[in-house]
Design brief:
This protein has one domain: tRNA-splicing ligase RtcB. It is of the alpha+beta class. It is globular, with a radius of gyration of 21 Å. Helix 6 packs antiparallel against helix 7. It starts with 6 loop residues before the first strand and ends with a strand. It has a 7-stranded antiparallel sheet with strand order 10-6-8-7-17-15-14. Strand 7 and strand 8 form a beta hairpin. It is built from 10 helices and 17 strands.
């Protein structure tokens, strides 16, 4: 079965997967994961696959999974609410300092990032968290605390001091803070992060509860990471409450980081400027109730962004590639979704095996960023061609702005 803009992967019993992947590579193991997920009896209509699709835990990253009467915690993942935030400023390229390393250093001082390496036998405060959280964190945490305390009454092990100390921090892996220029030279601030340690704890806890439920009821699955929670059960209700809170934490986390990013830039660039001329704050790992094809269904976007008609979103490239501010076209077959980035073409281990530090330095030429062995796994060549990814989803979004980073802070 063919369509002008997407391919269809037929599964069984009329089930199928719609894939916006024309012109981009898709791993066979990812197709197998998609097939396994599509077989679950509570999938509504079909699974929609974005062009950045690649192997994930249980379900592929870059997929949109609509369900009726159940939710798959591993499909949402452990970085609940992970997403992007971008804000246009009134600064232009001419306002940036000649010494971009000073700008990068100011950002790195203002936003905790990274994490304490396990090799150090770390037992104290995570280096990527606050020692003494600033006032903005106190204010933001005050808006989250009461609901979190209610969640912790049911699951006490979630309550640790790191949850508060992680608010307004970046994390590690592919999370980043960037200063970018758009197609006409305006400066943008952009960042990528999620719910940090507390989202991981919530996700991990409910993934294990779902697996336990499957064993208790002798339910066989094509992949144990497709373990689900059935609507109407206590575990389901508790998960929906906790995951919704984690998504609020993630959005707030990005808001606080953006405040601190702007303040840091003002210490280097003394010219007065305004921000949030155009601003976007969007999740790409999350679940929420939406109305599609005549029904209220749970939509899990695992590495995908909401792209309703007129809705702004962010599709980043890699450390050396351009990124896009997009406007949704509201394609119903994709459940009003688009990709969340370029998507990896290889594992982090394979990237480190295949590429050298010299490759990383060359690939990030012109970008003020880390250029060391610990970020080779984020080398641009480990990702799909962002231009091909964008072309494959041209009926899902239209491009509003094209951004190119000049400063990148990695965790």
């Amino acid at each position: 079965m063919k369509n002008e803009n997407y391919d269809v992967l037929n599964v069984e019993d009329g089930r199928h997967v719609k894939m916006w992947t024309k012109g981009v590579p898709v791993e066979e193991v990812a197709k197998k994961q998609l097939t396994n997920t599509a077989k679950m009896p509570f999938i509504y209509k079909h699974i929609a696959v974005m062009p950045d699709v690649h192997l994930g835990k249980g379900s592929t990253i870059g997929s949109v999974i609509p369900t009726l009467g159940a939710v798959i915690p591993a499909a949402v993942g452990v970085d609940i609410g992970c997403g992007m935030m971008a804000a246009k400023t009134t600064l232009t390229a001419n306002d940036l300092p000649d010494n971009l390393s000073a700008l990068r250093s100011a950002i790195e001082r203002a936003i905790p990032h990274g994490m304490s390496p396990k090799t150090r036998g770390f037992r104290g405060r995570d280096e990527g968290s606050w020692n003494t959280p600033p006032a903005a964190v106190d204010v933001a945490w005050g808006q989250l605390k009461d609901e979190f305390d209610a969640i912790c009454l049911k699951t006490p092990k979630l309550k640790t001091t790191n949850n508060y100390r992680h608010l307004g921090t970046l994390g590690s892996g592919n999370h980043f803070v960037e200063v970018c220029l758009d197609e006409v030279g305006f400066v943008w601030f952009m960042l990528h992060s999620g719910s940090r340690g507390v989202g991981n704890a919530i996700g991990t806890h409910f993934i294990e509860l779902a697996k336990k439920d499957m064993r208790t009821h002798f339910i066989n699955l094509p992949d144990q990471d497709l373990a689900y929670l059935a609507e109407g059960t206590q575990h389901y209700n508790d998960y929906i409450q906790a995951v919704s809170w984690a998504q609020k934490f993630a959005r707030t986390n990005r808001d606080v980081m953006m405040q601190n990013l702007i303040a840091a830039v003002r210490t280097v660039i003394t010219k007065p400027f305004e921000t949030h001329v155009e601003a976007v704050n969007c999740h790409h790992n999350y679940v929420q109730k939406e109305h599609h094809f005549g029904k209220d269904v749970l939509i899990t976007r695992k590495g995908a962004v909401s792209a309703r008609p007129g809705e702004l979103g962010i599709i980043p490239g890699s450390m050396g590639a351009k990124s896009f501010i997009v406007r949704g076209k509201g394609n119903p077959d994709s459940f009003n979704s688009c990709s969340h980035g370029a998507g990896r073409t290889m594992s982090r281990t394979e990237a480190k095996r295949r590429y050298t530090l010299d490759d990383q330095i060359k690939a990030t030429e012109g970008v003020e960023c880390r250029k060391d062995a610990n970020v080779i796994d984020e080398i641009p060549m480990a990702y799909k061609d962002i231009d091909a990814v964008m072309h494959a989803q041209r009926d899902l979004v239209e491009v509003v702005h094209i951004l190119k980073q000049v400063v990148c802070v990695k965790g």
